Structures are given as structure tokens and as C-alpha cells.
Amino acid sequence: MNSTVDTSASEQLHAFRSHTCGALRDNNVGETVRLSGWVHRVRDHGGVLFIDLRDHYGVTQCVCDPDSPVFSEIEKVRSEWVIRIDGVVKARDEESRNDALPTGAVEIYIRDMEVHGAANELPLPVFGEPEYPEDIRLKYRFLDLRRETLHNNIMKRAEIISSMRRRMIEEGFFEFQTPILTASSPEGARDFLVPSRMHPGQFYALPQAPQQFKQLIMMAGFDRYFQIAPCFRDEDARADRSPGEFYQLDIEMSFVTQEDVFQAVEPVLRDLFVEFADGQAVTESFPRIPYKTSMEKYGNDKPDLRNPIEMENVTEHFAGSGFKIFAGMIEKDEEVRVWAIPAPTGGSRAFCDRMNSWAQDQGQPGLGYIFFKDGAGSGPVAKNIGAERTQAIADQLNLKDGDAVFFVCGKPKSFLDFAGQARVRVGDELGLSETEGFKFCWIVDFPMFEWNEDEKRVDFSHNPFSMPQGGLEALETQDPLTINAYQYDIVCNGVELSSGAIRNHKPEIMEKAFDIAGYDRQVLEDKFGGMLRALQYGAPPHGGIAPGVDRIVMLLCGEPNIREVTMFPMNQQAQDLLMSAPSDVSAAQLRELHIRLNLPKDE
């Protein structure tokens, strides 16, 4: 519908808008303006209609009284209609000003209106952002994206990526794009395969990461590379990773040591977080924590350092003690350890019993404890090991009256995960963990190899293209399970942001490393032939890293779920409900690709 108000001012206006819905201020009072946007909400105050008009830039209050020539048309308008309005800017009364809005000092008195697009009844509301089922939100993602919080998250993501790109260029890096259609890799997660029409029976793969390409770029002599790279992995959904695809800030550098990589990447991430942290504290420098130390102190290799609790080995205080359960396990197996989880301020039986009950809910037999009061330790453990051993534990852990300590016993591999969870639980329950700020660290000295229990063989524990510490000599003379690699992770607030490594640039070391992991020369030729050939023609020492863009945005937006910072995510079943993907294809398409389906039969 289109009303006509013949004013010379409106005739001179742009077809859709003279200003955005976030632009008008006090200095615009008296002007005739034109806005276009979505009807955020409509309010009827005693016959006077108020419309909050919204576009990408903000919200402006518009007023229509019965004297307006378009009052009858405005009465028909509903939420999320797209309209154009013309009107005069007026100052709001002092009591009606809205300081929460940048445009809150003014309002527009509507004199003309045109409907650009009417909206059907909404499947989910935009105004107010109430909780709504995820399947509805994803199916109608274009509506969901109109909500203020999600809209702001996506815009913050764009600003973060723009800042990343600017900072990398300022650091002397060059942006190159790597192929999306490539070869399948035997390492890592499942590939997404793409059938080739021109080569029947053969398949491309979408890259799990640009790993080989970025190394080849270094071998081609380009020195410093980066890319905001899409990565594709056929994995199940997680809160911090979409099923299917994610983005990373992919980085590679030539003629660098591990320390050079740290010095290049650390200021980029630190300053990026300072820029977008909204005043929250950010680690000035990133501490380096060896993998083994991280596992022993925090129970995992991605510690949240906002929790000050550090676990310690207290096996010696239980060996041969009167606490027969632990003492017997220690005597029976030399690999058994007792780890202590200090609980400053947790020194009450009620709290200790609550933690013990929690442990049982996790499927554990319980959680031994000592709590300290009146200058001594209390509880069954203290009674059985005696005052001298109890005091030795208190001295080692610097515990005092009002504190407590919990114990786990066994082979560390079997209790690591539980011990790490208990540490987090204690820190949260006692209010010891900081809830704001960003604390980074580097995890370094990852094992090069690990024992594959299922296949009863040595396998790569991390990136197979990493340089082993000690080089070829270590591979030839050491037990593989004792060799560390020049591999490193960046962790922030308990979230692994990236993995990286100094690469193996010598073919003889690569061949030996793959041989130890059970891959013969033919596998190298078949799967990594391009890389192997490149190494034989003068490869520079090089290394890199790839911080995850989605996880960085999650942290900076304070969102626990990656779908809240991704424009068009899939659901947990790897389905795009908006575009109905994956979907069936026609028989003609399959014939063209020489593919016949062999679908599983319904149970």
C-alpha cells in the first residue's frame, strides 16, 4: 500500500531511505526523513501507534496518531513487515527519552508509509529473543539471525576476522588460498569425498586442513603464509565444533624455531583478545607448560588457568601407610600413583561429603579426603595414615585450617579425566575460579608417538609431519614412546584454540617416523607423494599453527555453543535444516558419476 503525501522534501529523498534506523540524533530534529526496515514491534497507546523500526544499524521509534494520513494503513502493520516510512524528526519529552538506544532522544512522526514486504505469522518471535527449539531456529535461520544477540555475534565474528587479517598483514604475512578439492588423507578424521565425473570411480576429498599445501608453499619459497581457511571433517557434532566444517587462522613460516612461531603468534592473539574482550583482563604473556606437567597438574592438556588449583603427586605419603586401600595398590603395581587435589577453604565435612557423593554419581567408588581444623587433619584418611603423614601432605600442599584435600589413586591414565573434572568441580564449588578474563598458555613437548591399544602398535599421537626432538638420531636410538616432538597447542580458558608444530623438513626423518608408526614407503608415495617429492628438492626448516576462528569467536562472545556464532550452522545430526541438506540426487546425476547406491537395509 502506498499513500501519497505531496511534499517537496519527500520527493527529493532516496527511494528507500535518507538515513538508517540507527543514525538519527538531536541534530536531526525538524528534518523530513525516510527510513526503511523491519517492524520490530507495534504498540497501541490509547489510539496513538508506536512502531519500533529496525534495520542492520539500529532501531528508531516512529509515532502515528489519528491525524496522520496513513493511520489506517499503519493499523494493519504487524511484526517483521518490511516498510518504508516518511516523517518529521521530533525530540522526545524528557521523561520519554530512552538512553539505552542511540536514537532514543528522538522519534519520527509518520506522514507517509509504503509496505515493501508483508510477513506471514512468524514461526518464532524476533522481539524479546525467548528460548526456542533449536530445530525451529535452524530451519528459519533467516529469522533467527534477525534477533539482536545472534545478529551482534555474527557482526562481532566479522570484525574479529577483519582484525585477524589486518594484524597478520602487519606482521609481514601474505594471504594465499589453497585448493578445496584435494586428495584423501589416511590421517585424522573422516574425509568428505567428492566423486569425479571425469575420472569414474575416483574421488576428491575436501581438505581437513590445508596442512600439506601450506608446507608446500614454504617449500616453494614464499616464507610467510596465512589464510582464513575452511576445513572439512566428517565428525560428530560437539559444542565447540560444527559437524562438517569450521574455519581456522592457518599460519606457516620458513626458517623459524618453535620460539619464533611463539613470538609471531602470541601478540596477534593477545592484542586481538584485548581489542574484543570488553575490558576483561587478558594474559600479558603466555606461560609454556610441558604436556606431561599439564596432565599431572590439571588432569588434561587444555587447562583453564582461571582455576588456581594444581594437583600434586603424594604417592610417597601413602606407600606403606595404614590406609590399606591405597597402600595395597601402590605395593602391587609400581605404576600406581596417588594424586592430591587441594581445596583451599573447603575444610568442612559437609563439603567433603558432597564431593564424595558427586564422585559416586560419576561412577567412581568415592573420593578420599582430609579436612583441616584445630591444627590437625580430620576424616578417615587422616586417621589411617597418622598425624605425621597428614602433616607432611599439608606441608607439601601448603594447606592450613579451613582447607581440605581430595585424593585419587590408580594408574594415572585411568583416572586423569576424573581427576581433572574433580579439580574443576572443587574450584567452581568453592568460588576459587575466576569467571571473567582470558588466560592463555602454550602446551609444549607433546609425545611424538603413542601406543595404539586397539591395534597393538605404535602410532602418531599428534601431527605426523612434526619434527621429533632429537631428529633422526632420536628415532633410531630411543624408545619411540619416550620421544617428544616440536608440537604445541594454544589453550585459553580451558579451550584448545590451536595446534601447531615445527615441521619435519627432511625426507629421511619423515620416512623413519612413518616406518615406526607402521607406514611403509609405498604408503608415503601413495598418500603423501607430493610432500615427499618436495622434501627432496631443498626444503627449508619451517613451522606453523592454526588457531580456530570459531572457538575464538565463541570465547569473545561468551557463547558456549558454536551454533551461536555461526551464520548458517548444521544441527547435531549434520543436517542443514534451512537448505534441506544432505538431500537425495536424481538417478541421472548418479549415472553421470557412475555411482550406484548400496543403502543399509532398515532394521
Can you walk through the features of this model?
The chain is built from 18 helices and 22 strands. With 603 residues, the chain is α+β, with helices and mostly antiparallel strands. The strands form 5 sheets. The protein has an 8-stranded mixed β-sheet with strand order 6-9-10-22-21-20-17-11, sandwiched between helices. Strand 18 and strand 19 form a beta hairpin. Helix 6 packs across helix 16. The chain is globular.
In short:
The chain is α+β, with helices and mostly antiparallel strands. The protein contains 18 helices and 22 strands. Strands 6-9-10-22-21-20-17-11 form an 8-stranded mixed sheet, with helices on both faces. A 5-stranded mixed β-barrel has the order 1-2-3-5-4. Strands 12-13-16-14-15 form a 5-stranded antiparallel sheet, with helices on both faces.
Q: Report strand order across the widest sheet.
A: 6-9-10-22-21-20-17-11
Task: Please work out how many helical segments DSSP would assign.
Answer: 18
Kindly state the mean pLDDT as a whole number?
94
Shape: globular
Largest sheet: 8 strands, mixed
- Which strand-content bin applies to the residues? 15-25%
Number of strands: 22
Rg, please? 31 Å
End-to-end separation in angstroms reads 56 Å
- Helix content class: 25-40%
Structural class call reads: alpha+beta
